[in-house]
Amino acid sequence: MTTTFETQRAALADVVAIPVTPFAEDGSVDPATYRALLRRLLDGGITTLTPNGNTGEFYALTPAERRLVTELTVEEAGDRADILVGVGHDVPTAVASARHARELGASMVMVHQPVHPYVSQGGWVDYHRAVAEAVPELGVVPYIRNAQLTGARLAELADACPNVIGVKYAVPDAARFAAFARDAGLDRFVWVAGLAEPYAPSYFSAGATGFTSGLVNVAPAVSLNMIEALRAGDYTAAMKVWEQIRRFEELRAANGSANNVTVVKEALASLGLCRREVRPPSKPLPEGERAEVAAIAAGWSI
User: Residue 3: what pLDDT?
Assistant: First the structure.
């Protein structure tokens, strides 16, 4: 029987939340706080979760910690959310992580962009094919940050692996996205705007139907307001939300996104929800910059 992945496709056409990974005072992952943050997202109406995403500090976690985060997410969410587990690194590690996600009952994996100084387009296909073929029962979502990759290569991958059902597209160029999606097959995949709320209106106008979010950790209602407006085709309303979150996202994007996770955790810390600590190569905000983040978070209806 051919798997249609209808449930997974619907889950991607939504706010795809990337939970932060909170750390305890001794620097270890804090399971109790992580569960509390997940409950807050679920209670706030979020139904798609990506443990081990970039906002979760994927590359700063050990293999054991990544497994723990996946396990905690699946256990806490139960049947309240679809789980899209971030996997990556070398091929055997990515495959092992994908199989672990399958064993736990997750329905999808997101394959992080290959971290390698020399990425050929054919090699990109081979990398993702190895993961997708290892877990044919799971929906597979490549995370694309490579502006050189062509839509034809994604189509080639999906020809070989029909469980490649969606794309997290994170090249900051709406025109390039529009062309890439049409070259790959606009209706063939679920297109997720991978650069979150700031890019969601422009990417939705070109064919995206979902977007990722780190901001959602702080204010789930704000992210839901944006996707509701976009689904309705109300770009005026969507841009009002855009204006509301603009400064927060500018702070995250500054200096090559150096504080992408830091700003989110600082906002959560200001609300008393988790510690502000991040792991190197990220760094907590200087004391002088914390007040602005706290003021933004306090100004949202949370």
Answer: 72
